[in-house]
Structure formats: C-alpha cells, structure tokens
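Please review this one:
***
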Amino acid sequence: MSILQPFDDSYFMKRAVQEAEIAYELGEIPVGAVITVNNTIIARAHNLTERLNDVTAHAEMQAITAAVHYLGGKYLTDCTLYVTLEPCQMCAGALYWSQISKIVYAAPDPVRGYIKMGTQLHPKTKVSGGVLENEASQLLKSFFIERRNLN
C-alpha cells in the first residue's frame, strides 16, 4: 500500500492548470505556471501576451519574475516550475539563467518547445513531462478550435 503524498507533482500541476484556465477566460493562450519551494507555492502566473501586448509575457516568464521578487534574489535553486506546456526556447533560456532545480510540464510542444529547438537547460535542472498532459492538451485544443471558429 502506498502512502498518498498531498503535495506531489499532480497537486501542483492542478494549480498550474487553474492558471491556464484563467488565461483561457482572458482570451490568452491557456498556459499556466506555478513555482514552488519546499512544497509552498511562491509564484502563480499565466500567459499575458495579449493583455500586455508583449511577446515575452509567457506564463513561465511571469512566474520567474514573481518568484525572484518573493525570494529576493535572482536564482531559483531549490525551486520547481510546474507549467502546463513544455517551455519554448525563450523561457528555457530564462530558466537556464535562473538555475531552477526542476521543471515539470504537462503537455509537450513538438513544434515550438525547447526540446525541438535544441535549447539547453542548466546542467543541474531536472525535467519531467506528461503530468496532467491530457487536461492541459484538451484546454489548448479547445482554445484553438474556439479561435478558429470565431474567425
């Protein structure tokens, strides 16, 4: 019998999916992110590229900024990013420089993701994918189907 961990990757990814749902409601591409340290959420964010008219306002970038302000320093060692879509190369570059310890993503991005683009993360950063992949993928698919039907 396994003991259920209340603060596992699924728990925090659900919080990231909630952020993605907020983005969806705002007409943003539904990507959400949270950053944790010691099982505590220190940053929550979602895409704001449309609202801020800023191509760099990805969920990960917003979360990095919030987390470093919370911590009072520029490095995110001992932190974990939970994000609903595999980071792009821009976000992966910022995550590299932040020295984040772990990245957990839900859905892969086989076209624009950092893996496809060959972008390097910090050598000490651990990565895992596929946590709540179906939920995150469905949200993205619904968003783009809705957008196509509006045009």
Q: What stands out?
A: The first strand starts at residue 32 and ends at 37. The mean pLDDT is 95.
